[in-house]
Amino acid sequence: MFNIEDAIAKIRSVGHVICENQGHVFDDYDHMNSDATAVCERLGIPFTDDIILAYPAERTFVPISEAEIAEEEEELGVRLPEDYKQLLVAFGEFHLPGDAEICFQSPLNAAYNSQGQWQVDENLSVLAISSYNVDSDGNSIGFIRREDRFGDELFEFNHERRYHGDDPALWSKKLAGSLSEFIVLYLRQFE
Known about the structure:
By secondary structure, the protein is α+β, with helices and mostly antiparallel strands. Helix content is 30%, strand content 18%.
């Protein structure tokens, strides 16, 4: 339905739109002291001592090289969807505006968080690439593993249903046929 070029163009078109997220979504947020000084400086936004930071989405656009993504993919030992890899090359670990609090992660960060939040083992039955707080805080979006690769379809992982078992089919629902399709449809709210 939609391809990666559509998704990239749509993301660029909303780069000026303000995102609002809690400071803890940033790696350089000082959790111990609830201090956003480093985050504010890096994003080039006025300092705030509020827990919620407001910033243009484009301030999070820091592309990751194809070589780095290939290294992370090799370290994981599983192939990643092409849309996901191309978006990381274009934007890095970027954020999208909107109420869903979408903050995309690199493959290794996503794997680490998938193992922690979704209690998946080193075989990674799922790869949760971002939070997705539309229906409930604590949900994620990502991919389900299909043998030696993650499928292209994008799923919502429901943390309240996770206790039903290890099979992701028990606690996920398909959102889109691809990450590109999901992004284009999600960002229509800003047209």
